[in-house]
Amino acid sequence: MKNKKTLLIVLSIISIVTIAIIGLASFKTDLAKAKADLRIAQDTQEVIQVWQRYGKDLSLANSKVLVKSIKDKLEQLEISDQELHQILDVLPKAPKSLNVIVVPDLSRRIIDQYNNPDQIQNDKAIINTIWNEFVQVAKYKKQSSDYFGINLTDLDQAQGSFSKISDDLRFDLSEKEKNKPNRTLFSDSLNNIVKTRIDQLYSIAENKPLGADYRYYIRRYLPNQLKTPDLSNDFRNKLIIITDGYLEAENQSADTKITGYEKELKTAVLNGTIKQKIKALALEIPPIDIDLSNTDVLICEVNERKNGKGYHFEILQAYWTMWFESMGAKSITFLGREQSLKQSQKHIKQYLKK
């Protein structure tokens, strides 16, 4: 009886090993077939068909091998952006990388103690929160191309001295050594450098604040800051605008037009028809030709002035929301200046994680 049991166990082990060997051979055979079909593929559709035919049945390891082979093949084919999107919809998602772009409003709002008391301290706390959260998101990834950068709407802001400190306010993980873990790049020393540069930026701007021209920034600078998903990185653009919400560029008429329309706009706010009223009065901010379909937009620290208490916030929200909707933004979050700074920081952390 004992010998019979032993024999059954041995036979079971042999069966399991045989099945495993056959399975492995099958996986290798399927991978070899996939690579052979891939070599003769002539266009994007044929490459997609190779993945659909073999990809889902391969082991995880062989699946990664096939994905790499597909990437190499697509580089040979020199595919268009449209074809790239088709491929990205089919292949497993590449590692996610954040592209965080912070654009503070260094206009007179930062010294307006009547409407925006302690705004400089608030702004600096907000930016340091964004940096700290970026570090937490990126630090423990093995490999990524996460990016953090602070931009100005115009290089004349901060008295044209921004270039002197800008290098320490841009951090690009795609430039690191290929196999170096992200965590080796972050340190208390780096955090102190970023904090010091933020202090310097606001110290310079405080002496000569200039109106923030966001229309000019989006047209001139933002396109070069955005990143699109590719075969190696699933980029998510995070555009963070820190402003009181009033679009009033230096020596230009306001884009968020309120003066002269107060009665009509206030009535529309009370009636819940503010967007319709802005359209009816043809006051919309003109859209800019830019692709924001992969960009989450956060406008924060919005603070209505005392002469518009109770209705300016809704007007500003309508202007900004309609503007970014017209440019196809993936999502738009509009946050007022909170009574509690901790509450603002909580919202920002949630925004960067989503």
In short:
The chain is α/β, with parallel strands linked by helices and 354 residues long. It contains 13 helices and six strands. It has a six-stranded mixed beta sheet, with helices on both faces.
Walkthrough of the structure:
The chain has a six-stranded mixed beta sheet, sandwiched between helices. The longest helix is centred in the N-terminal third of the chain and has 39 residues. The radius of gyration is 27 Å and the shape is globular. Helix 5 links the parallel strand 1 and strand 2. The mean pLDDT is 87. The protein folds into two domains: 89 residues, no CATH class; 258 residues, Rossmann fold. It starts with a helix and ends with a helix. With 354 residues, it is an alpha/beta fold. It has 13 helices and six strands.
Strand content: 5-15%
**Most strands sheet:** 6 strands, mixed
Looking at the structure, what is the overall shape? globular
Please give the share of residues in helix: 40-55%
CATH architecture title of the largest domain: 3-Layer(aba) Sandwich
**CATH superfamily heading of the largest domain:** von Willebrand factor, type A domain
Structural class: alpha/beta
User: What is the CA–CA distance across the termini?
Assistant: 62 Å
List the uncertain runs.
none
Provide the domain count. 2
* SSE pattern: HHHHEHEHEHHHEHHEHEH
Q: What's the average pLDDT? A: 87
* Tally of DSSP β-strands: 6
Q: Quick one: CATH class of the largest domain?
A: Alpha Beta
